[in-house]
Amino acid sequence: MENFTTLPELNNTLGNWTDYSIQYKVISSSLLLLICALGLVGNVMVILVVLTTKHMRTPTNCYLVSLAVADLMVLTAAGLPSITDSIFGSWVFGHYGCLCITYFQYLGINASSCSITAFTIERYIAICHPIKAQFLCTLSRAKKIILFVWAFTSLYCVMWFYLSDIQELVYDNDITIISCGYRVPRKFYLPIYFFDFGVFFVLPLLLSAVLYGLIGRILFLNPLPSDPKDKKRKNGQNNHNANDRTSCKNSRHSSSTATSRRQVTKMLAVVVILFATLWMPYRTLVVVNSFLDQPYLDSWFLLFCRICIYLNSAINPVIYNAMSQKFRAAFRKICRCGRKSSDKPATYSVALTYSAVKDTSMVESTDHFTTELEELTVTDELLSDQKMMFPDPCVYEKVNFSDA
C-alpha cells in the first residue's frame, strides 16, 4: 500500500525533508523482503497443490486458491514496491507504474476480502443446510463464483487508474521527492476510502461473525444429524449381522465427517480472524487520519501497518500447513521431502473415502461431497499397521481421520 498517509494540500508548506535513518532502512527492507519471499513461495505452493492434486480440487480449496492469487497480487504490487520506498524514500516506478501498481494493490485487497466471504458462505451452506449444499456447494458453481468475484473486483478497481498519479513534492530545503498519490483533492477520495472500508472490511467481518456463530452452534452444540436414507435402509434389513455392520459403518463415517468439518471450519475461522486483526491497524490509521488536520506520519508505525498487511497475505499457507493434514502432506510432496512410498497413503486414503461413500449411500453426486468426504485421510499410524486383521467389523471405528 503506497497510500498510507494523505498527501498534503498544495497550498500547505511541506517543511524540510529528512531521509530515513540507516537503521530504519535496514530493518524495514529486511523484514519486508523476508515476509514477501515467504508469502510468494507459500501461496504459489497452495496453488500448485490444488491444481496438481486431483483429490484436493474441492469447492473450499478453490476459494483458497482464489485467496492465494489475491495474496500474491498484494505481495507483488504492494510489498515489493514498499521495499524500494524504504530504501530510496521516493517513487521509482514512473507514471504508468503508479497507475498499474495502485490498481493491482486494490484488486488484490478486494478480491481477497470477497474470497474470504465466499468460502464463509460456502461453509455455512455445507454445514447448516446439507440438503441444499448438494446442489449449491459444487465445484462448478465455486468456479463460477470465483470468476464473478474477480470480474466484479477488476471492474470496480478501474477507477484507480483515474484517481492515482505521481506528484513532485518540493520541500522547503529544495529537495524534490516523487510520490505516487492522488490526482483529486482529499474531499473526493475520502468517500471512496470509507466505502471500501465498509464494503470490503466491515461488512465481510460482520457476515463472517454471524455465519461462523451459526456454524459453531451446529458443529459444537448439536450432534451431526443422521441421514434419512440410512434409516430407511436400516429398517429394511432383516439380517441382524448386516444391521450391525451397517450401523458400524454409518457411525464411523458420521464421526469422521463431523471431525473433519470441525477442523476445516476452525482453519477457515483462523484465516478470517487473522484477516481482521492484521488489517485493523491500517484501516484504523486511515479512518483516524481522515479526521485529523495533521495526519499521523510516524515512519515506524507506518512500517508496522505495512508488515501487518503483508504478513496477512503471507501467513495463510502456514495456517493450512499447521491445521490441515492433507495440505501438509501435499506440501511435503511438492518439496520432495517425503519418502518415496509417501504416494501409497494418499491412494489408500482416496480409495477408503470413496468406499465409505459407496457403502453408506450418502451421496448421489460426488461433485458436492468432495467438499466434505474427500477431506478424510488415513493417518500414518493406521498405515503402519494396515496388515493387521480385524475380525470385528466395529473395530474400524478406531481408524483416526483427519482434516482437509
From TrEMBL:
SUPFAM superfamilies (alphabetical): Family A G protein-coupled receptor-like (SSF81321)
Any single biological process term in GO: phospholipase C-activating G protein-coupled receptor signaling pathway
CDD domains: 7tmA_TRH-R
Residue spans crossing the bilayer: 26-51, 63-83, 145-163, 192-215, 264-280, 300-323
Keyword annotations of the record: Cell membrane, Disulfide bond, G-protein coupled receptor, Glycoprotein, Membrane, Receptor, Transducer, Transmembrane, Transmembrane helix
Membrane protein topology class: Multi-pass membrane protein
Cellular component, GO annotation: plasma membrane
Stated name of the protein: Thyrotropin-releasing hormone receptor
Native source species: Collichthys lucidus
